[in-house]
């Protein structure tokens, strides 16, 4: 049986624990450094259990040293920016929301050489119709253990741009679009999705907004891709533009699922899928879910297993298993040289 003194000690401990958590807001207009206690409304630097709000004013808040909190909100009508720079290590035990406040609020979470770890979910744009959320990785590392959402549960759009560095999705799913439109721009760097979830890269799946991935450079590695699956009648369009770079799928024959409004468009990019997936890809190509209006380098490959000429006769799509990349099926497009160009090449050789 618990005696009175022990019960009193427990009560004191509970009250002390509850009193440690605080809601802290950044109030210095024009921005500043995270570890500057004078910039916070409570005149103290946030701790690992605090909920933090960069929603009271616009400006750029810079993390250039180790910092932590529980939850984080970034949004303001005058644009709220949080940058994690070299030397900065920001850790969130809970959820991070970007673009979730203000009538026309804009939030921007940017990593420039620092390290950002989110143990909960990352939501880029949330609530409202006129808000916008942006995530930018120029260099450094981002790790998300929960789910990532680009696009809000209303109509607000969310955009992530990876220009360099490494983005790791450890758990949950990486969702491009919800009700709001979602865009992922890959201009360099690596997106590595290691989640145990089935087909964790979800592009316009279980969503009504338009979803687009622009793979211009860099690499995406994922166990699987789900495009335009599980949507309602007012579903949006799901698109992957393989303008450059590499999309590599490590899963089985069900690791690339595409709905009626899904499209993969080849430019100079490459799709690589583990195992012999010629049959699965042939079905998707012949159903019109894969297109190649243009190709990359015009040099014809030395070997391939199947090829298709586009309707304009300007590009060929090639599929090869095991020769170009051992153990993988590789898909790429090449521009077709016009006859007059071929004549010039032959003449120059002669």
Short structural description:
This protein is mainly β and 350 residues long. It has helices at residues 4-20, 278-286, 339-349; strands at residues 23-25, 30-33, 51-54, 59-63, 66-69, 71-74, 80-85, 89-92, 96-98, 106-118, 122-124, 132-144, 148-150, 158-162, 166-169, 174-176, 182-193, 201-203, 211-222, 225-227, 238-242, 246-249, 256-258, 262-266, 270-274, 290-291, 306-309, 315-321, 328-335.
Plain-language structure description:
- The chain is mostly beta strands.
- The chain has one domain.
- Helix content is 11%, strand content 44%.
- The chain has 3 helices and 29 strands.
- The strands form 2 sheets. The protein has a 19-stranded mixed beta sheet that branches.
- β27 (306-309) and β28 form a beta hairpin.
- InterPro entries: Autotransporter_pectin_lyase_C, Pectin_lyase_fold/virulence.
Largest sheet: 19 strands, mixed
By helix and strand content, what is the structural category?
mainly beta
Percent helix range: 10-25%
Number of domains: 1
Principal-axes shape call: elongated
Evaluate the radius of gyration.
24 Å
Number of strands: 29
**Could you report the average pLDDT, rounded to the nearest whole number?**
91
* Number of discrete helical segments: 3
**Low-confidence residue ranges:** 4-19, 341-350
Beta percentage is: 35-45%
Distance between termini? 102 Å
